[in-house]
Amino acid sequence: MVEMMENRTFAEIKVGDSANLVRTCSMKDVELFGVATGDLNPTHYSVESAERFAHHRKVVAHSMWGGSLLSALLGNELPGPGTVYRSQDLVFSGAVEVGDTLTVTVTVTEKIGPEDIILDCLGTNQKGETIFSGRARVAAPTEKLVLPRLELNEVSLRRRHHVFEDIIARCAPLAPISVAVCHPCDQVSLEGPVEAAKLGLIDPILIGPEAKIRSVAKEFNMDISGLRIIDTAHSHESSEKAVAMCRSGEAEALMKGSLHTDEMMHEVASRDKGLRTARRISHVFVMDVPTYPRTLLITDAAINIYPTLEDKADILQNCIELAHVLGVELPKVAILSAVETVYPKINSTIEAAALCKMADRGQITGAQLDGPLAFDNAISEEAAKIKKINSPVAGRADILLVPDLEAGNMLAKQLSYLADADAAGIVLGSRVPIVLTSRADMASCAVAVLFAHARRAKGAIAAQ
Question: Quick one: DSSP state of residue 252?
């Protein structure tokens, strides 16, 4: 049944008429008010600041949060729909702490023709203490209105995107790394390395048909005058030369340009001339999910289609090493499946259990593993409690190891499009880190920079 709103016209209103509204102040109310107004006063968000600067035991709401309830009361109840504010004066006598219940009352004291009314305004807390008092003058509606009560959009709070900002900031004191950019022959693939060079992240080496690269730069007004270009006849030659430069050590990372991924990765995977190591090559998505409290790594969603148990051990070790580079000393790994118990008919549950035992035996190192875990109890502590899962990983995962490429790719894209997540990506397990997308995505470049510098430092220690 639709709830209706009915106003009181100027003719219907009598001196002495009143209305009230009761609202309990939550931390969500405080944060939403701060977001809407831009008020960043720390006494509203931090207990320490409230104690230090405002001498309150708890976080206090913005004074005008209580005052804003008057607007709701006047607009919804008395006089109701069609009301127009003329003026408002308030004296604040106390503070609203988070958890307080505020009763706001308006009482008509005077009618001024042809439509204005004066109302006394009072706000009290659950103890009967006066929080504010004052007077309002409004133009009351002269036309009777009975309307369906509006259903406003729901608002949810989430943390601000910051993961990639932090990663890029960590690169500031580091020297740029040399990057072989393979066939950057369109706007998107050339713009990325040019912008990364401007930020001081990389020293790009542009490998492709020189005339085409310069034509694209001129067309889209990109300055490549200081960048090294290695001329090639076609994308296959670009792949060969880019991989060769990485193999020789002339470049410390590889970045894909406008050619197809398979063409470049074919050269990377070559046994004789490629960049293979003893480790399986795999891809990691670095996700900044505003609704999740930590950086989330998803692997493998781009390279290995149906990895074996042995493949997954390598995929996982690659990702664990990246987590270390990103500052997670002991990452929590959730090995995903459809269920959280070992079920012989679902092979991913058996492999999850085997991977955990491999970690117990030291075959996988540097992380805490648990699995099988369904997605909900991997990232939600509440879901894990409901399922009675006692685990240091459940609900707090840093790494999600997916059963296969299809599951990982869908998961990463669902987070991007349904949870407003940002994604960066990097390929590991080869001699150098590989950025598969060279669009203007500085985060992927920054991840490659951090990984390359970590590898430098590791090599320097090993040489001592």
Answer: S
